[in-house]
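Risk mitigation, structural track. In case the binding assays with (R)-mevalonate fail to produce interpretable data, a predicted complex structure has been prepared as a fallback.
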Amino acid sequence: MPLPLLTSAPGKVIIFGEHSAVFNEPAIAASVASLRTYLLVTEAENADIVELDFPDIGLDHKWHVSELSGMPDLGELGPIDHCKELSTDLNAALEPLLQSLHGSLKYHAAYCFLYLYVSLCGARSGVKFSVKSSLPIGAGLGSSASIAVCLALAIGKLGGHLSSEAQKLTKDELKFVDRWSFIGEKCIHGTPSGIDNAVATYGNAVLFQRQANAETRSEQISDFPQIPMILTNTGIPRSTKVLVSGVKDLLTRQPDIAVPIVKSMGIIASRGAQILADLSASNYTELCELVRINHGLLVALGVSHPGLEVIKGLGDSMAIGATKLTGAGGGGCALTILKQDAPEDAITKFKTSLESAHGYKTYVTGLGGPGCAFIASDQILQNYELIESLFDNNVAVSNLSVLLPGKSSLQWIY
Ligand SMILES: Nc1ncnc2c1ncn2[C@@H]1O[C@H](COP(=O)(O)OP(=O)(O)OP(=O)(O)O)[C@@H](O)[C@H]1O
Ligand SMILES: C[C@@](O)(CCO)CC(=O)[O-]
Ligand SMILES: [Mg+2]
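Fallback model:
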């Protein structure tokens, strides 16, 4: 695959079923139309290195080709094997390369990168990977999945696993990206369900269910309605990995109580899917009711946070709509589905008081839109000055809107 190469993937909003999705219950998520990660792959200045430039997390690291050689032969292992369990041999071989990055966001991003790179590209060197994202990190909007999808698509192409000339990503190629990004998510947070990377790969909205055999089933929800909602980011940091393992521990300690909670969340998602397929004034109230119940069950699982309850409390006291946390919780984001008759001035008051009194950030964004996408080298070269300038650290992420697949004049392929 000739360089440069640009890949992109969206963030996501889980409407119903976070956490229960990990335990094979159905869940619904949609891609976030305007919040995306972009990965630019270029020739490195030095042919003997592989470089990561991930400024959002302060990661600028180079590995020498000699460090990448001598990796274990993964010969017979296919993606499904890695999906079931990450290779212990590869993990052990990567450990020394990650040593200086321990205990940080950097570690997980670099681990995800190296696992995919070594598995799919061997010891190729002379390549630089630069990331720019409009997604908040660790906020519940799927930043980890979007980066894993950008990497899986780019590295799959560099390693010759995906066609370099195609004018469209085929079903099989999307499956490849879905599987390898799931493997990347496993590096970042241990036991993902796969819903986040499925949405970041396929886009639009999906009804997702993880199967017992580590396979996943995601059904596209066509004509997903634009539900009027406000996303609020508390900015309270948390880790999906820690929250997911906390829920697993609760299920082990209190199975008689916690298993039915998780099952109820699955029933909510299934009912939610029926409503969303045929949303009308008459079932909108039930949709709001499901949002309220789903949040209550997430509270019971211990994954809310006082900072999220502020949003719920304000939304409830203003009777503006129904609020639930979205993503892994523990901080991060909440979504508020607005009542159909919510007055404009009440919506404004809700947003400004969360912003001014609590320092939260609110987003009004459309849902749905393209999943993963790439721009081939000839197109990038024709627009190189523009694209390169957007990856400058001093350029605000709001400028990334000129790159939006589906809206931009650049020829994204997806
Ligand atoms: N722009 C980025 N640059 C580099 N690494 C990133 C970026 N965005 C996300 N990551 C990686 O993803 C990790 C955050 O993932 P985490 O799953 O905890 O949060 P999230 O994906 O934003 O939220 P959720 O999983 O609840 O949707 C970071 O530790 C980092 O390794
Ligand atoms: C908490 C969780 O359900 C959603 C995180 O966005 C984890 C997952 O499904 O991988
Ligand atoms: Mg994540």
